[in-house]
Amino acid sequence: xxxxxxxxxxxxxxxxxxxxMSRFDERRPFRPWVMRIAANRAIDVLRDESRLVSLDxxxxxxxxxxxxxxxxxxxxxxxxGTERRLVVVLHYWLGMEVKEVGExxxxxxxxxxxxxxxxxxxxxxxxxxxxx
Length: 132
Prior knowledge:
The chain is mainly α. Helix content is 73%, strand content 0%.
């Protein structure tokens, strides 16, 4: 896990969240809102610093076969639904274990693992389709 990167993202996400509190809908849960800010910030930091971690051998292989770039992968991750994008960013880019991801999001570890698996399948498909 890149602890320095995770700390940077967490700090910046918190600052952004506090700056956006006036736009927060108090009728909605706070945790998913903050996590979405953190996930989006993590993607931005990775793009800015060109620090991509291999998501999964299957997705990496699809990207190589399609001769896609890191930007293609980031765009594919951005295109995931919020739930899937969060588990991908938390697990692969911030280095959290699936169990930790589940705890953080308030879902069972099996649900986190399922979302992660479906996200990887969707990413593979997106990368294959975008470059066929």
